[in-house]
Amino acid sequence: MKSILFICHGNICRSTMAQFVFQNMVNGRHLTDKFHIDSAATSREEIGNPPHRGTVQKMKEENIPVIPHRAKQITWKDYEEYDYIIGMDSNNMRNLGRMLKGDPQNKVHKFLTFAGSGRDIADPWYTGDFDATYEDVVEGCEAFLRFLEENKKI
User: Fold this and answer.
1) Catalytic residue among 38, 120, 123, 136, which?
2) Please, what is the Cα angle at 15 between 11 and 16, to 5 degrees?
């Protein structure tokens, strides 16, 4: 079983969106038993809060189930337990490097690198554009799943 942890700043917008979208893709391919998928934050600002209403609304528009979730911060224990830790932007990657002792096991990846891009996934908390974030998240999820399949990781 592969364990995936999606990371953003607060764990209420992008990382939860990625968690829900990737879980939906996995379920649609009947691979549910091959994955454990969750999300977390680099900051403590939103701990305990549910997914942002904009993320929830976008998931409803796309008929993607919203999994019960409360924001939490990544820990070293998470680093030890997860196979892939996927950050949404350059700031997340910098914070993860600091928080996770420089990523000694090379588990941390910037999301859109799986799609051949170094782009950040814009934070809709600031942009208000949940549609654009969703498109980027879908691109990242499709590329990540393809990476896992092509490299026989699942």
Assistant:
1) 123
2) 80
